[in-house]
Write a structure and sequence with these properties.
mainly alpha, elongated, single chain, 5 helices, 93 residues
């Protein structure tokens, strides 16, 4: 039961990050989606974009805390740590 709740929080955080990435690329960029992805790839901006895309995880985390779902909030934190490691690796290696 505990692992299931943590996994649910982890998956929700991944989806929140993907949604944040989509919203950023689609609406904050002056280009369309495919051109934005091409620019991100050419200029190696994955780390910077992923950091901005992780902002919705903050809201998800506090919603879980407000609802007293601490294990799901722990899953969100684990997803954020994984994302931080991915950003670190993409920036320096």
């Amino acid at each position: 039961m505990i692992k299931k709740e943590i996994f649910i929080g982890f998956i929700i955080a991944i989806f929140a990050t993907l949604a944040g990435f989509y919203v950023y690329v689609e609406y904050a960029s002056a280009y369309n989606f495919s051109e934005s992805l091409k620019i991100i790839n050419e200029q190696n901006l994955y780390g910077k974009i992923l950091v901005l895309a992780a902002i919705p995880n903050l809201f998800v985390f506090f919603v879980f805390l407000k609802k007293k779902q601490d294990l799901r909030a722990r899953g969100v934190l684990m997803a954020c740590l994984l994302l931080a490691i991915l950003v670190f690796v993409s920036q320096f290696f």
